Amino acid sequence: MQDGKILIIDDNKSLLSALEILLQFEYKHIETISNPNQISSLPNLSDFDIVLLDMNFSAGVNTGNEGLFWLKEIKKKAPLTSVLMMTAYGAIDLAVRALKEGAADFILKPWNNEKLLATIKSAYLLRKSLKEVQELKQKESHLKQVINQDNNYIIGNSKALTSVLNLVRKVAKTDVNVLITGENGTGKELIARELHRMSSRKNEVFIGVDMGSISETLFESELFGHTKGAFTDAKEDRAGKFEAANSGSLFLDEIGNLSLQTQAKLLSAIQNRTIVRVGSNKSIPVNIRLVCATNCNLNQMVEEGIFREDLLYRINTIHIEVPPLRERDKDILVLADFYLKKYATKYGKPSLRINTSAEEKLLGYRWPGNVRELQHTIERAVILCEGNVLKPTDFLLSTTIGVSLDKGPETLDEMEQLMIAKALDNHNGNYSAAANELGISRQTLYNKIKKSEK
């Protein structure tokens, strides 16, 4: 017996009884009404899986118009309910009209019991499928909301930041490709998320990909997906980031870290707006808003032959340069106050404040690690502070990645950080040249910098 609810509407009470007897052994809940006017007063119409609806209720009338009218009313109130039309007057054009209005099928009187049961079962399965699709859509919508939740905020009102946000508002209304550049820690991903939040795709998913952390061997699988058996560990079909971001926004962070070979593969996907999964020959169209980011000088990399000029043109329809924190004047104190409140609450020190001398120290520092460095600096000060006031001595500011001004390197990690900082400084932030000087790969350099920032 199916766990289904069926409503039968017919002015012939003998027919209602016959159907009720036939179906009571197949479905748990059967309800009948002889007057279609009762449909409007049914409080639970959408709870029914199937409605068997007669097409004619007035004596001597066999046009089917009454049934079509009530079909429309039922579909308005219960769009997912499967409606089967019943009539003793079979006509192809009438059946077609009923199907166009949303009926699941058409039953002729008198019926064959086996055929009737098969038709009802098909309608019941259709109803279950429609409910499952609706539930999946609701879950998908909820999942997108969860994924798109961003507890980080763009904080500040400096002229430099306001100018960037004004550009973001203009560009967000379009679907053009955007390249966001800026130093490490300036908040490039926050700008990308703001673009998404202000766009027409805001209710769709935002997918971020750290290109620097993807190895060359897994590049195609991660971005374009793969089919079952495409390689040793491919135990099932898997969608890549391009497919996952379909209808939404795809954010490719640290795009300057890609090799020339992977750049070519990415260019093809961006140009054609189609991807091919690893192990497949089928092209899959994708509809995405592409946003890329890097702290590299891509124009210089093009001149050096390590970044494709045609790819740069593709991703750089609009260029947004995020200003470093040292160019955002009083935003430093606004951000410091924000992080102070955040971490003071987190670590149970709600009465903490920063004194004037400490504020002057924060304003006078160049913040090579930008907002990220400021955030870590405030958190460290809150943790270590023993009083209620943060003084200049509570802020250990760095000359390089993670090394205090007041002392030299004391560990191998700090020595490594100094060497990396020096190499980057020698080559004006060019990762490839710095990696070459240090005798390591570009990806290894990137991973070491990311590790030091945690």
Describe this protein's structure.
There is one protein chain. The two termini are 59 Å apart. 45% of the residues lie in helices and 15% in strands. With 454 residues, it is of the alpha/beta class. The strands form five sheets. Strands 2-1-3-4-5 form a five-stranded parallel sheet, with helices on both faces. Helix 15 packs across helix 16 and helix 16 (431-438) packs across helix 17 (442-453).
Summarize this structure as a short list of keywords or feature phrases:
alpha/beta; five-stranded parallel β-sheet; 17 helices; 454 residues
* Fraction of residues in helix: 40-55%
* Unreliable residue stretches: 399-407
- The tally of beta strands, per DSSP, is 16
Put simply, the count of helices is: 17
Give the helix/strand class.
alpha/beta
Strand order in the largest sheet: 2-1-3-4-5
Q: How big a fraction of the residues is strand?
A: 15-25%
Radius of gyration, in angstroms, nearest whole number: 32 Å
Structure in a nutshell:
With 454 residues, the chain is α/β, with parallel strands linked by helices. It contains 17 helices and 16 strands.
